[in-house]
Amino acid sequence: MNELYEKSLRTLEFPRVLEMLAAQCVTLEAKERALEIRPCDESRTVARLLEETTAARDMMDRYGTPAFAGIKPVAASLHRADRGGALNPRELLEIAAVLRTTRTVSAYCDNAEGSNCLRPLFRSLTSDRVLEDQITGSILSEEEIADTASPALADIRRHIRTTSGKAREVLQKLISSQASKYLQEAIITIRSDRFVVPVKAEYRSMVPGLVHDVSATGSTYFIEPMGAVKANNDLRELLAAEEKEIERILRALSASCAAEQEMIRQNYSLLVELDAIFARGKLSYRLNCCAPRMAENGGFRFRKARHPLLDPKKAVPIDLELGERFDTLVITGPNTGGKTVTLKTAGLLTAMAQCGLHIPVGDDSYFSVFSQVLSDIGDEQSIEQSLSTFSAHMTNIVKILEQADDRTLILYDELGAGTDPVEGAALAEAIIEESRSIGSKVCATTHYAELKLYAMTTAGVENACCEFDVESLRPTYRLLIGVPGKSNAFAISKRLGLPEHIIEKANTHMSEENIRFEDVITQLEQQRRALEEERLEAARLRQLTKKDSDAARDYRRKLEEEREKALRQARADAEAIIREAREMSELVFQELNEMKKQAKKSQNFQEVNRQRTEVRRLINETETKARAQQMQEAPPATRPAVAGDVVELVKMGTQAEVISVNRDGTLQLQAGILKITAKQEEVRVVEDAKARAKKERQRQTNRAVTRIRAAGVKPELDLRGMMSDEALDMVDRYLDDALLAHLKSVTIIHGKGTGALRSAVRRHLKSSKYVKSFRPGHFGEGEDGVTVVELK
Description:
Blueprint: H1 3-11, H2 14-24, H3 28-35, H4 43-63, H5 75-82, H6 89-111, H7 119-124, H8 129-138, E1 139-141, E2 144-145, H9 151-176, E3 189-191, E4 194-200, E5 209-214, E6 220-225, H10 229-259, H11 261-287, E7 293-294, E8 300-305, E9 318-322, E10 328-332, H12 339-354, E11 366-367, E12 372-376, H13 389-403, E13 408-412, H14 421-438, E14 441-445, H15 449-457, E15 461-469, E16 474-481, H16 489-495, H17 500-508, H18 512-602, H19 605-631, E17 646-649, E18 654-661, E19 667-671, E20 674-678, E21 683-687, H20 689-711, E22 716-718, H21 724-740, E23 745-749, H22 756-766, E24 771-776, E25 786-791
Parallel strand pairs: 7-11, 10-14, 10-15, 12-13, 13-14, 22-23
Antiparallel strand pairs: 1-2, 3-4, 4-6, 5-6, 8-9, 15-16, 17-18, 17-21, 18-19, 19-20, 23-25, 24-25
Helix pairs in contact: 2-3, 2-11, 3-11, 4-11, 5-10, 6-8, 6-11, 8-10, 9-10, 14-15, 18-19, 21-22
């Protein structure tokens, strides 16, 4: 990357974005890598980086963020271990931390469902629980080795404790005897790793032993009594053996690490890479970004774009495009109207996207990969270098034109300023023409009317302006593409109190051509606002029409479903009755056969006739029942329907409202959004106009009450600081109101704290009849400090 490109990135404040990215990293090496990121000009690499960022954000949304804490560089330690050196406890614990993080991050991936581009990175991690446990089981801290590190060390330390006890016992007897009067203090202390007692200088000959130290004043001698010499000697030998055994343990652990150094190095490198990727995902959350689409047309289109360094609550989103309909955009407007911020937004969002970062834009945004983004923004005058504002700008522009190519995005701020307006405008036009001839995409800001006219009359060049509210004397910061801007100098001066006669005199100094040009711009602005209002109204009507169409389609579908259901039920009932009739017929024939047999035997003709009559009656009843079920019994007759009645269509079972009665006696009905014509005998009155009006008034009253209650319901409830009983009562009342407000999902904020309130709330939600399901909050929602509830 050349010096001019680096300078342009600094001008666009790209390093501040990298600082925000580095703040999201956990490991030191990932932070360093973040600060060294530069835009990539290779499309495949940019696409891969964006895919990784999107995958990381998706995993964070569903499973939280993997833990990368505690990872430190281990390459130097592994290199020394490979050469036979013994690592100290701190270095071994750092290697164990890498192994532990590898294991937990691998488990994070194993618990995640689905597949994405990060899976290969996670699967490349290699856990070694054996080596991890060897290190953590042997080393308790940077200063302490565990007794269980080896059987020999445990045995040595057991002997040290025994021998130390013996030495203390000898000295304790001395302190407790008559010789205690010779001591400066009745204590046991240590000098040169040997137990001694402090003896007064004048009595040093009264306590036979070895002198190990003398106080600074010479009044105290630290003497090792002869009875403790053997025990101290044994203790010294044991301490030396302990130190030797610890050295052996550290060497053995170091050799184990050296044997697995390739695996550990690879794990560390993968963890740092994953940390950097998830840092991009966390920055996307923080700035409320999304992934733009990558195009090949050499331009960009940013919908609802925000500058990433501005407060999201105060920044005004803008729509910005270049490359598809035009390759050059000339932005005009008053000072402090947002022209320079627009330039920086275009350049900075392009650079961020080429680094694989999500950008703060809306849906349907795209960008192209540029080889470089070069800018001439700001005042770079220098007294030391004898450069005026114009000279500094021109020096920069010369370098830009030398290095630009057909894949370059060039940003010019106040092009041609700082010199004679006529010459500056001509020079600015020539520079834009030269930039376009190279094939570069150009965004330029200016105040020159000549450039506005140039943009209006040149193919591939488009005007844009930063909107300004003359009434409030404040910019709206909205970018309007296709409309040249006005400086509004006269209007602003008048509002600020400049006398009217001065403004009129200034107006006389303007040429008629300039006056006509400004009038044309004013008329264009008025027409644009009128068209904008008409467009918004058309969009509203289009949305309303679509909503009505969807409702009609749903109603028609429901009618068809109800009709099919009624037909299926009727067929099923008819088949059941026919089946019953057949069974009854078989029974009748059986009885007839029995009767014949009995007639032959008893010749009881009277009984035979009676039974035949009974059989015929049963057959007739069955046939009548089947016929009635198939034909369906007609509902009881009602009075003739009149306009305003609610009637039921007998065949369909659907209710409708009578709109009017035709001359031929037929009825015009309204069933939802459908209009139907029916005869009087095909309907029956179920509700007259008066009763219907009364019910309708009651329904309107109920809906009004519901809307009044629902208007104050918020999608979240804050319980922090409440006792459990008070909080549960509040939850019940809130769920009642949420159901009336037809809320599908609500958030209950209880905080983390000790977890008592959280547990009480979730136990209560399990038994609530209003709750369909609930879950802890995801990353960005409050995590375990909130509970997201889905209502029935």
